[in-house]
Amino acid sequence: MSIALLYERSENDEAGIKLTAQQLGIDLAFIPFRKIALAISKEGFTAKTKGKDYTSILNSTAVVLNRAQSKNRRLQASYIMEMLGKKTLNTSQVEFTCYSKLRTLLSLWKAGLPIPKTVFVPCDASDFMKNGKEIHNEKDIADLFEAEISLDEGIVIKADAGTHGKMIMLSKNRDELIANIQETKPTIINPIGVVAQELVQKWFYDLRIIVYKEKGKQPVCYNKALARAGFKDFRTNTFLGNLVFEAELPQSVVDLSVKCASTLGKGNDSWIFALDAMTDVKENKQVDDDYLKSQLDLAAEAYAPVQKVKADETRLTDFQAWNGKLEQTFNTYASSDSYQKIKSIIEESIEKNKDALVFHEANSCPEFWENTRLVTGLNVAVPLLKCAQSLIDQ
After folding, report:
1. Residue 195 above 70 pLDDT?
2. I want to staple 275 with a disulfide (CB 3.0 to 4.6 A). Which of 75, 170, 209, 388 is the partner?
3. Long-range contacts for 299-308 (Cβ within 8 Å, ≥24 apart)?
4. Smallest Cα–Cα separation from 116: which of 89, 83, 153?
5. What are the Cα distances from residue 319, in Å, to 5, 307, 309, 324?
6. Average pLDDT score over residue span 360-365
């Protein structure tokens, strides 16, 4: 029985998993999950694309690595594979929790773990009646938010199932708050209601922390985090042009991250999460912002060659050669003086503010090849594959 990699499109992460499996000598099958027809009947099931029959591959698969990028398809894929008798990483139970920011936060809050203050109002910004009349709820929703979170500090409106910073909006006054609530129409990334959160004064960075568990073993939190940093926006997402740095974690943060991941993975033999966390720095800063911005500008110059390699389409035709160039240019960036200075500032800030850490999201299918692997030294494909291996009955 083998491990199968289920994916929508073969991107860098999937290519990295394939390469890592080869290096580890792991037999890996491949199952596309976009243009595939799953048929179920009293005769059993079949899984076919227009050009290939994957039924026999599925029959010989013990564990499915679920790498579908769409949250909806990933949730559906886990449940389908489990109904076909396959073990999944992560399980549909985990996917269900991580699909929703609110469900994730409720799980952490219930376990007494630190999260930003969060308010959920189930009604939508507008209701449409049978007679065609539109009822506006924006002001009432804004009143409910302001009763719990001070606008002086800022209120963040979030899409419950959003990703890559989509539909995350900062409100600094009443008019902005109402306008942002109006933007939260029911969509696939925000199925119902409105989620608001206090603005955490995280200074200029946030953290992505990897925690995983193999069956029969204790959970492991990797002691280096990916720090996403910059002043491009109050969101420090790399898709908005912010930079990446290594950040070594204090032991207390490692221990807390294990508790968070264990809460989300409770009842499952094996799992892997990328936890997103922020330190509520407020004014507890060790350098001024002008100096920091000057160093970030220098770091951006050093990072430009990395961005150029990332955009090189030869990754599609010769992944290994492209990856070698990527690693070489990133190592040059990481050895730059500005990178080392900012890394030191981030690590000192984490240490000073380690008791002010909050967790705000958990990713069940994290991207890793271009950033996390290069920054932290952890190739997430290794624990992914080892966690899957641990689920195969010997």
Report:
1. yes
2. 209
3. 299/243, 299/333, 299/336, 299/338, 299/339, 299/342, 300/243, 302/332, 302/333, 302/336, 302/338, 302/339, 303/243, 303/333, 305/329, 305/332, 305/333, 306/330, 306/333
4. 153
5. 18, 16, 12, 9
6. 97
Find the helix or strand (DSSP H, E) in which 245 lies.
Answer: strand 243-248
Instruction: Please name every residue paired with 87 in a beta bridge, in sequence order, or none if there are none.
Output: 63
Q: How far apart are CA 70 and CA 276, in angstroms?
A: 19
Handedness of CA 217, 221, 224, 227 (dihedral sign): positive
Q: For the chain, give the number of residues.
A: 394
Q: CA nearest 359: which of 294, 243, 295, 278?
A: 278
Quick one: pLDDT at residue 160? 93
Flag whether pLDDT at 34 surpasses 80.
Answer: yes
Query: Can you tell me whether residue 234 is helix, strand or coil?
Result: coil
Q: In the chain, helix, strand, coil percent, each to 5?
A: 40, 25, 35
Average pLDDT over residues 51-78: 95
Lowest-pLDDT choice from 116-120, 125-129, 340-344: 125-129
- 66 within 8 A of 78, measured Cβ to Cβ: yes
Tell me the two tokens of residue 261.
């991941």
- The helix/strand count (H/E) of the chain reads as 13, 18
